[in-house]
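pasting for ref
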Amino acid sequence: MRIALDAMGGDRAPAVPVAGAVQAARLYGIEVPLVGRPEVIQAELAKHDTRGLSLPIVPASQVVEMTDHVDAVRARKDASMNVGARLVRRGEADGFVSAGHSGAVMAAALFNIGRIPGIKRPALGTVYPTIPGHCFVLDVGANTECTPLYLLQFALMGSIFMEKIYGLPRPTVALLSNGEEEDKGNLLVRQATPLLKASGLNFIGNAEGKDVPKGLADVIVTDGFSGNVLIKLSEGLVVALGLIIVNELKAGVVGKLALLLAVPGAILALPTLLLSLPALRRIVRRFYYAEFGGAHLLGVNGPVVVAHGRSNVKAIQNAIRVCKESVERDVVGTIREGVKDLPGGEWPQRASQYVDHI
């Protein structure tokens, strides 16, 4: 197993990507080729104990910075994300991970790996914590403008992902909308509905924003604009709620008194708190972005994971892990077969004709 890593991608590259690669290679027993400027990567590797680990350096003389325009991918042929994606295309790596500019990583994957035959647009999908467990939301930023056919294909790819990665037989699929009723939603949602109903997927209708964390569906399908707003709002809300609680406790005499009383109370309750630590850790892990690693770029002809630009070492390690799992469970191959066979091998053409008609 070889999962290539863009060692130059992300806000804290190369230190954080290299450290994450070292942890992943040690924990998962895989080879992690590090793509980027050799002298910089070697200097970071020297800070770690890499005995017995397979961390070869793949030279790349250029970098696409987080502030660059996506066009930089085409102009800088020897950029680390281009070189990493070419490793997958040539079979020299089984998957590719980058915490670089998400639009640029998608462009690099498209230019160097290409789309799965029949897929019109790749989609970024991410795991989203819910009350029952998790759902999968896509697209979360790759395509701000979509057609009904794109949403249909996103639904197929999301269903395959949840079946392969989470072992869910016939995952439920819902369209993100502003109402549960079938006649609600914008033109895109209303036109996508009949396609999803006729697709053979386990489509259950519309889901409002409040339904997503409740776990109404296993797969939530939307355009990249709405999906990105949903994800970013959720991330901000978790942080905001924590800060609001702390600020309210600090405010006023009653709040300060509560904080003072909480200290001796916490000491008395220490045995109970210690027993609760495993549960608290599980709660934190369900909401902590680093546990999910990154977003899967589904629809390209090889496993690609796009990690947060602000990723820490744990996030990079987990991004490599989820890419490894995608390879092991052949998510790309299953999507390739799913597009070809749903239904009767004529699905992409029939869906395109239907969309053109409406």
